[in-house]
């Protein structure tokens, strides 16, 4: 049996499914932050959210594809599982890092939008 093909098939399937799951979660829950950041401008928030989703897919699926190749010797199911766990662990950590990066960007954008709103309120009150 060709263990390499087994590892590649499982790796690609799980990587793409995980990427889609994380991306959909960010897309659904990130909309609220974007609407707030853009002061209720829902069309703009939805547009930016779709662009972020597309970029997230491109970066993560591209990285998963680039890291598909392995030089490890795979001659048994045990070696296949060990190689697969390293590859999937790397993808999961990458997705986690991208998730926290997106949250950080949302936080910074929201903080800046709130500060701008406070400044505008202050100027209008005078």
From TrEMBL:
**What are the entry keywords?**
Membrane, Transmembrane, Transmembrane helix
- Membrane-crossing ranges are 6-27, 48-66, 86-107
Write the protein's name: Integral membrane protein
Species annotation? Hymenobacter algoricola
């Amino acid at each position: 049996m060709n263990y390499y093909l087994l590892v590649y098939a499982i790796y690609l399937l799980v990587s793409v499914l995980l990427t889609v799951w994380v991306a959909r979660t960010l897309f659904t829950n990130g909309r609220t932050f974007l609407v707030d950041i853009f002061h209720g401008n829902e069309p703009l928030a939805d547009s930016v959210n779709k662009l972020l989703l597309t970029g997230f897919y491109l970066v993560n699926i591209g990285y998963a594809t680039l890291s598909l190749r392995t030089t490890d010797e795979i001659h048994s199911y045990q070696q296949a599982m060990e190689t697969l766990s390293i590859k999937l662990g790397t993808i999961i950590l990458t997705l986690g890092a991208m998730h926290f990066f997106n949250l950080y960007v949302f936080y910074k954008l929201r903080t800046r939008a709130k500060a701008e709103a406070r400044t505008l309120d202050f100027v209008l009150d005078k």
